[in-house]
Every structure is written in C-alpha cells, then in structure tokens.
Amino acid sequence: MNVLVIGGAGYIGSHMVAELGAGGSNVVTLDNLSTGFQDAVLCGEFIQGDLADVSRLHRVLESHRFDAVMHFASFTQVGESMRDPIAYYRNNLVNTLNLLDVLVDHGVNRFIFSSTAAIFGEPMYVPIDEGHACHPINPYGRTKLMVEQALADYDRAYGLKSICLRYFNAAGAHPDGILGERHEPETHLIPLVLQAASGRRPHISVFGRDYDTPDGTCIRDYIHVADLCEAHWLALQRLMEGAESAAYNLGNGNGFSVQEVIDTVKRVTGCHVPVVDAARRPGDPARLVADSSMARRELGWTPKYPDLEDIVAHAWQFERTRAPLASVA
Question: Which domains does the chain possess?
C-alpha cells in the first residue's frame, strides 16, 4: 500500500509512519517541520513542504500513486488558538481544504483525518459517544469540526471517503523507546510530570483541587500513541475494503486524575516530583472520558496498553533518553 502521511514528523504522525513501514507499506511523509523533526521519520521518503503550497502538493501527487492519505498536520494548542485564531483557521481549515482539493483533482479517494474530542465542547454527559452534540468552545475545536463537516460534503459531491478519529488525550511513547513526545513547548500532562521527575523542569503545577472528582483533580482519558496508530491502521483497512465514511471517538474509556498521573509517575520512576498547586484554568471540565465502543465494534479495535503504568513507563523510557542525568540513570 502506498500512503502519504501529512505531518509525519510530529508526535503521532511519526509513530504512524513507523507502524506503516513496519507493516510493509510504502510511506511518503510531507511535513513543513514547523513543530516536527525530520529525524523522527524512521522510514520511507521525506518531503519538506507545506499544505499552503498548492503547487507543491500537485507535484507530490503527480509523482506518486497513493492509495490513501493520513493527515496529522494540524495546530493543536487550545490556548494558542484563542490568542491567534487566524493561524488556526489558515492552517487547520484552509490548508486542509487545499489538500482535499488536490486529492480530488488526482483521484485519491481515501482519507484518514486526525480529529479531536475538542469538537464536543463542554461535556453534557460522560463517557462521550459519537452522538454527543458538537459545540466546540475554542477555535481549535471549531476548525476541526469544520473539516469534519467539509469531509462529509466532499464525500457526497466527489466520492472522497474519509474516517475521522477523535482523540481524547494522546500519551505515551513507542514501546521500544525510539520515538516520543518532543513538543516545544510541552503542554501535555504526562511528559510535563516526567520532566519534573527527571529534573528538566523545576515542578509540575496542579490547576485546581476542588473539582467534583474523587481526589478533587481533573480526570482525563489517556490513550497510548501506539493504540492510536493501531486504530488508524484499522480505519485505513476499512476504507481499503470499501467502507463508507465514518467518525470514531478514541480513548481507553477509563479516566485518570491529575493526581493519579503524578502518583503513577512517582511509582514508575522512583523519583521525587515537585508539585505546586495553582488556581483552576478557565474552561477545564472536571471529566473528559471517551465512549469508544463504536470503534471497538466496527473497527475491531482493542487498546493494547490501557494501563496508565504502561503509558507512563514507555514515556519515561523516552524521557530518559532526553535527560540522561545520574538521578534517572
């Protein structure tokens, strides 16, 4: 199978490229390296390019015959999207439409889209299933929802079949320690706590301890990046078999609190984690947990690493390669 991976030098995209290559697919990665790293692309051909460069996209599609395209090249920071919505609408929406137009022009009709739980907004109930109302509360979530809506229209008009995968909290690292999170700056909880454990960060902040949860801290659904990639692979297989367009929520279905993450990091690493309590952040729901039963049923997807300890242990293995200090040797 010939697959074009957009954003394949980033966190989730690079893990996907590695999995596709290990499975025998011919992979081409297109990435502008604005947040990704070329050395994270472990197999296949790498092309540096941007989705805003439509001529470049046409040349890539003309020089290869792709069976499918996977798109991971969105901006993903909620706070940043509030401060700079123009960047999010241009990159996440306009640039994705550029890509879809080129795919239609070249007859590529299978598309896997990296979406997000942010399309739902404040949860009306948990766990959140695919039938939950979509009322995103920030530009990040709105741009992702707009792409999902555009994909439905492109299917009806042009026959472009797509599967949208709504992540909850991607976490962990490659089980072999060869890939992991390298965000600059880092905003995800698990790598932040691990950086505090390794000494690369002075402390971890806990934003609020008065939520309606057992320990008072927010609960989130963490899904191992390897399990996310497995879901993408199964979705791709489904499209290759002629399935209709669809959208699936991806999570473990088990929520873990901020305090549980900190306690697990201490247990797995054996290191002290300095903690500073801080005020709540606006817009942080008490609980965000996925109902992934549809993905399990229709894709045949079962997470291999649902335990928080496995997620943390794999992420710690990668963190140790970035902070080879005596305290974490």
Answer: 2-170+224-250 (3.40.50.720), 171-221+253-328 (3.90.25.10)
